[in-house]
Design brief:
This protein is about 75% helix and about 0% strand. It has about 90 residues and is mainly alpha-helical.
Length: about 90
């Protein structure tokens, strides 16, 4: 690619189709990353049943109908937070 060609390419405006393509790429990439991390975390939990059971006990101990405020106050699930951070 020549310098002149690069300059011409930079002068061109981004089209709506190109923007949509970029958004699609970012969405798919984010989905793949999240799915990969989730798979890794679930695989790690399957390898360590003691950790899996402790996490399960913490989640079941919260109750059947938790409110959103109680759920995400940052103190409700310390072991879940540790498992997520370790993954």
């Amino acid at each position: 690619m020549t310098a002149q060609h690069r300059e011409e390419k930079h002068k061109q405006k981004t089209t709506l189709d190109e923007i949509v393509e970029h958004i699609t790429t970012f969405t798919v990439s984010g989905h793949e990353t999240s799915a990969g991390v989730l798979c890794f975390a679930l695989h790690a939990l399957a390898q360590y049943p003691v950790i899996q059971q402790r996490l399960r006990d913490e989640l079941l101990g919260f109750g059947h109908e938790p409110s959103f405020d109680k759920l995400w106050n940052g103190e409700s699930f310390p072991y879940l937070e540790a498992v997520i951070k370790e993954s």
